[in-house]
Amino acid sequence: MYDCLRAATKRTQQYNANPPPNMTLLKTIPAHNQAITCMAYDQATNQLFTGSKDGKVKQWDCNTGQTTHEETLGGPVDALLYIQGFLFVAYVKGTVPNVDGIINFYNTAAGKTQMIPGHRGHINQLLAANNFLFSCGQDYSIRVWGLEGEAFVLKHILDKDAGGHTHAVQCIEMINGFLISGDSTGCLKIWDSSSGQCTQTLQTAHKSIISSILQYGANILTGSADGSLKGGAAANAILVMDGTPDNRGESMLAISTLYDGVTLYNVDQNMTLLGTLPLEVCRALTSIPGAALIAGDDRGQVHIYSWT
Fold it and tell me: How far is the C-alpha of 105 from the C-alpha of 90, rounded, in Å?
């Protein structure tokens, strides 16, 4: 299944300091006091959710750039997920070495909240697939949660006893019924989502942290702190990726790296380099399909770029 990843070759990055000609900075919002770590966009309401190391999660009206809701949690926010009126917020509470990873579940329509404990340490990503919630984290585990009535309960723990990771799990993605996970050593694992068993391990898929896994059309991409994007072009230390159509319906790939800002590629044109947005370090990307790309940086700013 992942021969395409093994066979992928690195290409020298053609760094272009100029933004893509069909992209314009629409708005910059001073959103948080510390780095923005995660974002989620709700197309139905045109609302943006942001989470930060400052321990706050905020809801924004993208038309006005004003906050519509704000909540202070017990520690830095690590991950956000918004789907069909449900908001999931992952954050940490406590002090080292007694740090707990918590997920707050908000049923926005019913106005109800549930606190979901379970992880030890930071929760690196949240994923909704196959009617389950998946979370992965610093405790080497992937946890599977199911909704019973109005509450989420733990269904499975995918850890080393199930053939899982022996280091922090950084990212997860569901692709064609298989759960794909990457860890802090560059190891990639493939799981049968129905049985919960690990079916394949690529021990050295990357030389360093796998920071992002993305399926975009026919492409399966993994990005890493080792500077490689397998399944596509090459870059320096990759922090996060996002796939989105532009205003012409063409497939775009945005890659945020540690040193070069956010670089845009046209996937439909054989990963043609379009340009780079001159931004500070951005650890969060999301998009408004066909309309805009949104980036959150380490200064706590949100930058909204529109396709023109």
Answer: 9
